[in-house]
UniProtKB/TrEMBL annotation:
Superkingdom of the organism of origin: Bacteria
Signal peptide positions (record): none
Source organism (scientific name): Novipirellula artificiosorum
GO molecular function: transmembrane transporter activity
Transmembrane segments: 30-49, 55-80, 101-124, 144-162, 174-194, 214-235, 247-271, 302-323, 335-353, 359-382, 394-412, 424-442
Family, per entry: Belongs to the purine-cytosine permease (2.A.39) family.
Gene Ontology CC terms, in alphabetical order: membrane
UniProt keyword annotation of Membrane present: yes
Lipid bilayer topology: Multi-pass membrane protein
Name of this protein: Permease
UniProt keyword annotations, A-Z: Membrane, Transmembrane, Transmembrane helix
Amino acid sequence: METKLPDYVASSQPVPKEGRMPWFKSTAQTYAGIMLWFVFWQSVPASGATNPGGILAHGLGVAILGVVFAAFICHFACYLAPGLMGMKTGRSLAVVGTSTYGVKGGFLMPGFFMGILQFGWLAVNAYFSAELVAAFLGQGQGSTVHMGIGIVWALLAVFVGIKGIAYVAKVATYLPLIPLVILIVLASGTFSGISQFSPEKLGVTADVQVSSFSLIMLVIANVVGFFATAGAAGVDIASSNRTSKDVHLGGLVGVAGVTIFTGVLSLIIVAGTYGQGLLESPAILDPTKLMEAIMGPQVGKIFMLLLAIAAFPPACFSSFIAAESFKNTLPKVNPFVSCGIGAVCAIGLVLSGKAGDAAGVFGFIGASFGPICGAMSADYLLSGRKWPGPRAGFNPAGWISWAVGFVVGVWPKLAPMLGVNFEIPCPPVAAIIVGFVLYILLAKAGMTSRLLPMPGATADAAATDAAIADA
């Protein structure tokens, strides 16, 4: 019978009281840097839609409603429970995840798996950021300059990420102001065109077949699919928070608030551009590709360069999560070695051009981590809103709920391969719901492995409860 904790769990130490920070110095900053990343908000107006006009096909109101729903789903369904468990324990995702997946299973997921997938994020970031810098220098996609900048970008981000969340937060303190200002300037320059905007100006005809509900589901799927892995990483990020109030405010501002801000402004920029008649069809739904039409060629190019520079904090965030995952699952391996190998893999994705398929990379990551967020939330609630502690071996409830949820998340890709003509609405959210509900049902049926004693866990919880009471 298994009684001994593996080294990555037994050797883990909670973040001490003196290492805790308020939400506006850690959680909100880090998440704001992610959601202000241009690769995210430039995708919102299209959100994977194949119909003319993207999610603006039924007007600006419907599209904004979808963004607002998506933002709060990210906060409440993806981030909140992992963040609260991280704050209450002060421990990493790899350790906290052992209650949902077991001490053997937790090593693989979400611990080690989280670290591996972060280098997919890093590769996409390095690829697109380097592409913008290369374009500013007059070099094309796939050029030697593009690839060279991508290599340097990835290596620098890994170095900052290994240094820890305090360094990532410092990088994220000012650089996110760049896309913030650019979004405000672009929106201000196009705001007057909103009143003249109509979907017809994007090539949408009167007999459009897609429903408003379908468009809302598309934007929710796009935003939640992008955010799911960052939500699970809330354990690591919020482990440096002082109280539950920090966790809530950090998420409401950094996750929900910034998502609404960037998503809505990106919609306003597109709608306002065509409302003013600055461009005519065929419609361009990517706000970054409208900057020259709005601001002029020279300013537009400068904005592209600035957006690339501002993309560095999200690259550091990915590297930080990878470093934390490897530090906790492989505590005896120097993180410069483990993360260095990951950086080489990320660079390989950049050089091969596969990192240019952002939708494919994020779709897979979202399908992987949606059910993890759902199952961890269920585990948290079933345990009386606390971390129950590590479980032995592979926890069946966690692994079964993840496997089924993953199939749901990748169903749009899987169904054609199986020759099945059945659609699942909003797969990323459906995967979260499946992970949540199935974990509860399986846990109630007794399909959870037994809890193992965690030295110091009771004291840690008592100290955290006292801090919450004082707050």
